[in-house]
Amino acid sequence: MEDLILDLPTFVRSCFNDPGDFLDWLKTFNYVGQSCKDIKERYGVQTDGLYYLKSKTGIIYETYCDMTTDGGGWTLVASVHENNMLGRCTVGDRWTSQQGGSSVFPDGDSNWVNKVTFGNAEGATGDDYKNPGYYDIQAQDLSVWHVPNLVSMENWKKSSIARYHTNSRFFPRYGGNLHGLFQHFPLKYKGGVCKTDNGPSIPIVFDEGDAKHLREMYGPRTYAGTEPGYVTFRAFNTEQAALAICSGVKVIGCHTEHVCFGGTGYFPEGSPKQCGDFAGWDWSGYGTHKEWSATKTITESAVLLFYR
Ligand SMILES: [Ca+2]
Ligand SMILES: [Ca+2]
Ligand SMILES: [Ca+2]
Predict the structure, then answer these.
(1) What is the structure's pLDDT at 56?
(2) Any idea which ligand is nearest the CA of 149?
(3) Nearest bound ligand to CA 273?
């Protein structure tokens, strides 16, 4: 046993063909920070990929860091994935409700405001993902990627149908991250009315794709109620259901369920037809891109959320 311990460094080194690979492996243990921005600043790392992070309370977890976009330092904290558009607030609808879209559970699963974590970084395009960074990292800006389902991590960036970030350092005004923001703007059914009580719409800068193209991935009838070039938080609809995020648009209308995702667990209009992680994106048929329906491409892409 003692021999094994003494020989451990030799043994570990022997697992790598290239001494350079061994050094890279060793470095992943040295690179521990509270966020990808920390790691970037401390070690000058410039490679996208998985890194270990440590939360304030001591949880060590692994997530993907975008170390290149706009100077890098972006931490993947969550992904919102729709596994079954026809399952209306059923299994997998973690960002709304897995309890059936009933008025009995109007708040749904509450994952936007709790500290429950699920999924894994590498699986972020195959299921929902949420790590401790979601509530632990004090961020300034948000970056969003729409990545087709099941694309492998090494191809996320080049396969994204849209990538953008905010650059106005808006998070500190609202609690420093999404967990804080949704305390300021609770996702409560009947907690407000559309247009007047929506949360902030923050201007965005595109890293892949453009504002017009992203807006036009939603149903044609939504265009009159949106403005491209923003990310919006907590948008109510006509029936006072609260949706969490409207990606790529400012909402100026009330049919927010066709352009926003996540939120409360009860959507009265056509109940439970608008209940689910991607809400009513299929209102005029699945992936048809007619009337109120989004394209199949955006419907079958996960939304990856990053902080910096
Ligand atoms: Ca669903
Ligand atoms: Ca989901
Ligand atoms: Ca509606």
Answers:
(1) 95
(2) 2
(3) 1
Ligand nearest to the CA of 118: 2
- Going from the Cα of 165 to the center of ligand 3, the distance in angstroms, rounded, reads 28
Q: What is the mean pLDDT of each run of 10 residues along the chain (308 residues)?
A: 59 75 64 93 94 95 97 98 97 97 92 98 98 98 98 98 98 98 97 97 98 98 98 98 98 98 96 97 98 98 98
Whole-number Å distance, alpha carbon 94 to ligand 2 midpoint, is 5
Whole-number Å distance, alpha carbon 90 to ligand 2 midpoint, is 9
Distance from Cα 93 to the centre of ligand 2, integer Å? 4
DSSP 228: E
- 156 Cα: distance to centroid of ligand 2 (angstroms): 18
Q: Output the six-digit token pair for 246.
A: 């409207």
Please list, residue by residue across 155-176, b when 16 or more beta carbons sit within 10 angstroms of its beta carbon and e when fewer do.
ebbebbbbbbbbeeebbeebbb
Which residue has 């001494």 as its token pair?
19
Report the pLDDT value the prediction gives residue 11, as an integer from 0 to 100.
Answer: 73
Ligand that comes closest to the CA of residue 280: 3
Task: Tell me what pLDDT residue 32 has.
Answer: 84
Rg of the chain, C-alpha, whole Å: 20
pLDDT at residue number 4 = 54
Cα–ligand 2 centroid distance for 89 (angstroms) = 9
Q: Which of 33, 51, 50 is nearest to 42 (CA)?
A: 33
Give CA–CA dist 35/138, Å, rounded.
9
- Per-residue model confidence (pLDDT) at position 16: 77
